[in-house]
Write a structure and sequence with these properties.
Blueprint (H helix, E strand, L loop, with lengths): L1 H24 L3 E2 L2 E2 L12 H11 L14 H20 L12 H4 L30 E5 L15 H5 L5 E5 L3 E3 L5 E2 L4 E4 L5 E4 L4 E4 L2 E6 L2 E3 L7 E6 L2 E5 L7 E4 L2 E6 L2 E3 L6 E4 L3 E6 L2 E3 L1 E3 L1 E3 L12 E5 L2 E2 L3 E3 L3 E3 L2 E5 L2 E2 L7 E4 L3 E5 L2 E3 L10 E3 L4 H4 L4 E4 L2 E3 L13 H6 L10 H4 L15
Parallel strand pairs: 3-4, 4-7, 5-8, 6-9, 7-10, 8-11, 9-14, 10-15, 11-16, 14-17, 15-18, 16-19, 17-21, 18-22, 19-23, 20-24, 21-25, 22-26, 23-27, 25-28, 26-29, 27-30, 28-31, 29-32, 30-33
Antiparallel strand pairs: 1-2, 12-13
Length: 449
């Protein structure tokens, strides 16, 4: 009997060791790197998120279509109209603070912006225009920059704020540097609003938007993000679970929808600055300032992950600045509207892709590097011309400087299509003005932002 007990104990120990090993080794590929996730032994944080996870795990390619629009060109026209209206009002002198940037002109003229913070939620454009974040919830004031306990975060910390089940508009009591011990796992219907404070998320984990919806990230410095993981992390008041290793993205969007990333300054992270994968859609990335980074933005999980055909992303009014190398963005499968951005630096290429994405480049300013072998804006990644010549990559009204050139294909190479697009985004000559406030704004109470 004693021998049987001993054998049983050994067997139980071996089984526990095996389960621990499996959990620790669980990974999901993201362009040859790992995607952070809960181990499969854990439940997801809430029923809406569980539903999203079930859709991602199933075989129905239309499961995520509910968040993608049937006619992306209609959303493009809406962006064009909003930009044109803002620019015309500026020319006519309707308001002295107008820049022609329709997002900023929606809220920045208000000297009492700090009393009307939630107005921002009504100013989005593009595919992420319906992201309301925490508009319908209460304000939550972050008073404590510490992140000592990712499982039981203290009230007043950023982590305690973002995991709550209810909508919240999160603001900051004062300037602070937040070094996250583990990745910050967002819950749905949250706005992180850094206006009026100098807030840095740096030197540790950064932001993960996974299996959730309606998130706005605004006015943060996010830099020097590190890989974290192999640890327990809380994602809601009722759930925490084991996290495998995160890559060290500044902002990782995974299986999520209605996300708006606006007016942030991002640089120098271990992996991407903004990555969106695994069926994410309805995203706008606007007014950000990107610097000092290699692989800036990855949009699409892998060439074989066909659910990303429903990915729709607007990339508008951003400044791609010094020290950038590639992926601004690098796209797969979906529809990507790249409009009125200022590209002042790349070392390899600006916009790349594979797996037949649609790339609609309008009214951007592309300043090529001095390297004579890096003048091309576009790069078809690991694909021969026989495959990519039918991909719809088009350029309308882009300003090409220092020898920059865009190689169109598919409908984008058609002269008749170019004429049909003549009422596109505002002239690239406006890009300097439209993007002049990119990155974190120096907002002060009682003054226009």
């Amino acid at each position: 009997m004693a021998m049987d007990s001993k054998k049983l104990a050994v067997s139980l120990f071996s089984a526990m060791l095996f389960l621990f090993f499996v959990g620790a080794m669980a990974r999901v590929e993201k362009s040859q790197t790992a995607i952070p996730r809960f181990s499969e032994a854990e439940n997801l944080q809430s029923s809406p998120n569980s539903t999203m996870a079930e859709k991602l795990g199933g075989n129905d390619e239309d499961a995520l279509n509910e968040h993608a629009v049937a006619d992306p060109e209609e959303v493009v026209r809406m962006v064009e109209m909003a930009t044109q209206n803002s620019t015309e009002r500026r020319k006519l002198g309707y308001f002295s603070c107008g820049t022609g940037n329709p997002i900023d002109d929606c809220w920045r003229c208000d000297a009492n912006w700090h009393k009307n913070r939630k107005r921002l939620a009504d100013c989005g454009i593009g595919f992420g225009r319906n992201a309301i974040g925490g508009r319908d919830g209460r304000f939550y004031v972050v008073t404590d920059p510490n992140d000592d306990n990712p499982v039981n975060p203290r009230p007043g910390t950023l982590r305690h704020a973002v995991i709550q089940d209810k909508p919240l508009w999160i603001v900051f009591k004062r300037d602070m540097v937040i070094k996250l011990k583990q990745e910050l796992i967002m819950n749905s219907f949250k706005t992180i609003d850094g206006r009026g404070a100098n807030v840095h998320i740096a030197g540790g984990g950064c932001i993960t938007i996974q299996y959730v919806t309606n998130v706005i990230i605004h006015g943060l410095h996010i830099h020097d993000c590190k890989p974290t993981g192999n640890a327990m992390v809380r994602s809601s008041p009722s759930h925490y679970g084991w996290r495998t290793m995160a890559d060290g993205d500044a902002i990782s969007i995974f299986g999520s929808s209605h996300v708006w990333v606006d007016h942030n300054s991002l640089s120098n992270c271990a992996d991407g600055l903004v990555d969106a994968v695994m069926g994410s859609t309805a995203i706008t990335i606007s007014n950000n300032y990107f610097t000092h980074h290699n692989e800036v933005m990855l949009l699409g999980h892998s060439d074989s992950y066909t659910r990303d055909k429903q990915m729709q992303v607007t990339i508008a009014f951003n400044h791609f600045g010094e020290g950038l190398i590639q992926r601004m963005p690098r796209c797969r499968h979906g529809y990507f509207h790249v409009v009125n951005n200022d590209y002042t630096h790349w070392e390899m290429y600006a916009i790349g892709g594979s797996a037949s994405p649609t790339i609609n480049s309008q009214g951007n300013r592309y300043l090529a590097p001095s390297n004579p072998f890096a003048k091309e804006v576009t790069k078809r990644v690991d694909t021969n011309q026989g495959q990519w010549k039918g991909w719809n990559w088009r350029s309308a009204g882009d300003l090409m400087l220092n020898g920059a050139y865009f190689t169109p294909s598919g409908a984008g190479a058609s002269a008749s299509y170019a004429r049909a697009s003549s009422l596109g985004a505002k002239s690239s000559s406006m890009v300097g003005t439209i993007t002049s406030g990119s990155g974190v704004l120096g907002c002060r109470r009682g003054h226009q932002c």
